[in-house]
Amino acid sequence: MARGRSAHGEPWQMMLYRCGEIIKRLRQTKPFPLDFNMFLATVLPVGALSQQQHEVVWKNLQRAIHMGKLMHFELEGEDPNLAFWICDTVEHPVPVDIGDLFIVAHSNPFRQTIEQWINEAYEIHSEIEATHDILAAFLKTVKHPKWVEVEWPELLPFIGRFPKHMMKQAEKRPAAMSIYTVTPHLRSGITDVLTKCLLLEDAEINAWVAYADSNTGRGGYP
């Protein structure tokens, strides 16, 4: 579960939030392949703007520049949708307009390594999104953990615990349940993914593809 955050809303939203936090652990299987300092030295003048520069002239320059820990990047000559982000522990110069991305040039010595990481990470990102979308549709249909227990009991370990009185207060069977179904093949795949994710540590992610949630530094769902 994300630190300092909790799920609110209707039961289906709470269940989806809990499953979503578990699924996002998949990102840990494809960590950023480079040391942040090594990479940033190829895209920013980090030497001049380092926090270790204590001379007044450098401190004055830093005051004239927008600083932050979350940075988004795009590859020169590639679709901007193939973006990625890193969230460092120290501040660096960042664009004033959050719509502007830093560019990784064709000549960047780590370009090939980053391209490979992006392609592989986006495959995982797509799996996360697809799994989340199916769960969202299912949970919004059944609306209540009681009907999850009836329709897809294998999902119970992942939706979180609910008070006994809440389990007994389920509304009547939603009419949409007779229309919307998730095939056994998809159910098996999703429960396998969730099970695998539970074996991963619930750790903060400091780099990923697409666009990060600017409030948390964690990649969110579009």
Overview of the structural elements:
- The chain is elongated, with a radius of gyration of 21 Å.
- The longest helix is centred in the middle third of the chain and has 32 residues.
- It starts with 10 loop residues before the first helix and ends in a 13-residue tail after the last strand.
- It has a four-stranded mixed β-sheet, with helices on one face.
- The protein is an alpha+beta fold.
- It is 38% helix and 11% strand.
- The relative contact order is 0.20.
- Helix 1 runs antiparallel to helix 4.
The helix-and-strand class reads: alpha+beta
Major sheet summary line: 4 strands, mixed
Task: Report the average pLDDT across residues.
Answer: 84
Radius of gyration: 21 Å
Spatial arrangement of strands, main beta sheet: 3-1-2-4
Task: List how many beta strands DSSP finds.
Answer: 4
Oligomeric state of the chains present here: single chain
> Ranges with pLDDT <50 over ≥5 residues?
1-5, 214-222
Indicate the proportion of strand residues.
Answer: 5-15%
Q: Distance between the terminal alpha carbons, to the nearest Å?
A: 19 Å
Task: Tell me the number of helical segments per DSSP (H or I, 4 or more residues long).
Answer: 7
Shape: elongated
Give, in order, the helices and strands: HHHEEEHHHHE
Helix percentage range: 25-40%
